[in-house]
Each structure stands twice: as structure tokens, then as C-alpha cells.
């Protein structure tokens, strides 16, 4: 089962409009809320982005990484105060990121299942519209994802 709780939803975060700044801000929020190593998260997110972009399009990215010290995947969401240049697949900036932090060991199948479920939902225009409409309210953003995406694995 993935851990997705409302305390892992952060809205209107103000950061520079670069992907590195956005990922650093996101890692800071996730690490503080979940007592994780921020630098390990930043390094993991940036290493994954170096492989290929996690900007799926329609203003949404799914940054993800694996770290030691957790036994269950953590799902987190952040909306940015200003669009972030993410070099997304559609060349549009990102306004919302859904982050996945997976256990370092034994999580390959879980990682792929959760990522696949999210990626499929990101092709649903109604889901994207609901995300965008809720992006300034953590409770609403949480509800949109919780009620539309089965994050269990």
C-alpha cells in the first residue's frame, strides 16, 4: 500500500521557475513531513530527471526516486505558485507535481504499478481539469487524487 495523506499535499509553493529549484523545494517539503533525508531526495529526483523528463504534459509532472529508510511508497503532491520550466513532453511548464518516493529495495513492481496508474490518469482530461481546479486548496487536491487514483499496489 502507498502512503498518501493530506499532510503530503503542499499548495502554492513559491520557488524559482527552474526544475532544479522546484525539485529542491518539493524534496524539502517531503523530507520535513516524513522525516527523510532532503539531500538524498534532491539527488534522487535530479538523477531521475537526468535520465528523461518526468513532465508528462498538461502542466503535471511525476518526479520519482528510490531511497533507503522507508518500507512503503510515499505519494506527495505540490502545486507551484508560478509555472516551472520542466522540459515536459509537451514543452509546457509544470504547475502540479505528484511525487513518488519508493523504498530502495523490493519496490520495483510497486514503483511501476503506482507510476502506471498515475500516468494513465494523466491522459484523462477530466482528471487534469479537476487537478488544475483544485491546485490552490490542499484538501481539494488531496480529494481529487484520493477519489480518482487507486494508489494501492
UniProtKB/TrEMBL annotation:
Stretches assigned to the PTS EIIA type-2 domain: 2-148
Keywords of this entry: Phosphoprotein, Phosphotransferase system, Sugar transport, Transferase, Transport
InterPro entries in UniProt: PTrfase/Anion_transptr, PTS_EIIA_type-2_dom, PTS_IIA_fruc, PTS_SugarTrans_NitroReg
Keyword Transport appears in the UniProt entry: yes
Segment forming the signal sequence: none
Entry protein name: PTS sugar transporter subunit IIA
Species: Lactiplantibacillus daowaiensis
Species lineage: Bacteria, Bacillati, Bacillota, Bacilli, Lactobacillales
Amino acid at each position: 500500500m502507498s502512503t498518501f495523506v493530506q499532510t503530503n499535499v503542499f499548495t502554492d509553493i513559491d520557488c524559482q521557475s527552474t526544475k532544479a529549484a522546484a525539485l529542491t523545494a518539493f524534496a524539502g517539503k517531503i523530507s520535513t513531513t516524513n522525516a527523510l533525508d532532503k539531500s538524498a531526495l534532491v539527488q534522487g529526483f535530479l538523477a531521475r530527471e537526468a535520465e528523461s523528463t518526468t513532465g508528462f504534459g498538461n502542466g503535471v509532472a511525476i518526479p520519482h526516486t528510490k531511497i533507503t529508510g522507508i518500507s512503503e511508497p510515499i505519494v506527495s503532491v505540490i502545486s507551484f505558485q508560478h509555472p516551472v520550466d520542466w522540459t515536459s513532453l509537451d514543452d509546457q511548464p509544470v504547475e502540479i507535481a505528484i511525487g513518488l518516493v519508493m523504498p530502495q529495495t523490493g519496490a520495483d513492481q510497486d514503483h511501476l504499478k503506482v507510476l502506471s496508474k498515475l500516468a494513465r490518469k494523466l491522459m484523462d482530461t477530466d482528471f487534469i481539469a479537476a487537478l488544475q481546479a483544485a491546485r490552490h486548496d490542499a484538501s481539494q487536491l488531496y480529494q481529487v487524487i484520493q477519489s480518482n487514483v487507486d494508489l494501492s499496489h
